[in-house]
Design goal:
Blueprint: H1 8-15, E1 21-22, H2 25-33, E2 38-44, H3 55-66, E3 70-76, H4 97-111, E4 125-128, H5 130-133, H6 138-144, H7 151-156, H8 158-165, H9 172-175, H10 177-192, E5 194-200, H11 204-218, E6 223-227, E7 240-241, E8 244-245, H12 255-263, H13 270-277, H14 282-289, H15 296-312, H16 314-329, E9 339-342, E10 351-352, H17 353-359, H18 366-374, E11 378-380, E12 383-384, E13 391-392, E14 401-405, E15 409-415
Parallel strand pairs: 2-3, 2-5, 3-4, 5-6, 9-15
Antiparallel strand pairs: 1-6, 7-8, 10-13, 11-12, 11-14, 14-15
Length: about 425
Amino acid sequence: MSYAPKSDFLKIMIERGFVAECTDYEGLDNSILNGNIAAYIGFDATAQSLHVGSLIQIMMLRWLQKTGGQPITLMGGGTTKVGDPSFRADERPLLSETQIEGNISGIKKVFSAYLDYGEKPNDALMINNDEWLSNLNYLEFLRDIGRHFSVNRMLSFESVKSRLDREQSLSFLEFNYMILQAYDFYELNKRYNCKLQMGGSDQLGNIINGMELTRRISDERVFGLTSPLLTTSDGKKMGKSQDGAIWLNANMLSPYEFWQFWRNTTDADVARFLKLYTELPLDECSRLEKLEGSEVNDAKIILANEVTALLHGRDAALTAAQTSSEVFEKGGIGEDLPTISFRENEISDGVPIVQAFVKAGLAKSGKEAKRLIAENGARLDDKLVTNTNLVLTAKMLTKPVKLSAGKKRHALVTLL
């Protein structure tokens, strides 16, 4: 893009690759320069943790605060009751209020690692849109807000159009989502003078809706900034692995497993991920980008260390790195590996090796574990497992044993 930003925030967003589209570069830039801008990103509470796919948005909020702006993390306690239809083939399962509250509680833990909440001018705010959405009077909402929305235009948005083009059902409940999200922007602008909404590029239509609603009701000029929807160089959606989502909460994915995910980054993605997910200076990112051959692994370790340190702390990152070195370079066990434990009275007859692989999360089913063994991908203390009927006895577990699925996934089995 040709625009040369003046504000530190927009300069960082562009230079590090965070920007897909901006509704008005110059207007946003000037608004930032005129005072500490407040900006928000919404997070629906569809799970007990966010995953790596949300990390680019979290980093945008972090950079906003580091450059003097005020980040607002909007918890979708209200909108989660409806469900975002964007680029989905079917309707999201409806969650109870208890489930939503539990999910919000889990998600909140992540943000404290990246943002400072408090009473200072640019301390982050955490708001739940259920505060205003649950108290709406339907008839008043239709009259005062609904009249500003054109169904013809709403049907043209790609998130809706793609569903209809595939002749897949779109419920009236889901169709309302974009109106509610637009209303969020209006409320945040009215209550907190929020001038900017950020999000993934799939949210551009919803963001523009909110901008136009705010302008029509309040005559306020607000802005939108979207980040690219990231896929890895092999085309996989960011945030997923062969074993499932890469969760940000430590109780759902250990710091070691999180570290290992970044250590396993493909060569082609390292430079881009260093700019997006770490705070290393750009000249250092450029230096690491130039590494070739086996030296690329040094850049991957730095990437894993820096990303893990931001989320779980520097000590957790160093421990994960030491465990990886012990396991991969020295053939040892490593105390930080994911661990499953059995009581002696639970395994009087032993534990079938197939069951151990499944319980350790190294195989999704007994059938998959047997296939892993048949294809010479399973190891026990670095020795090949060839017998699917092998049983781990209590005597064998008097000291921890290491299970390995391929070269990169490991777990410990211990006796309590």
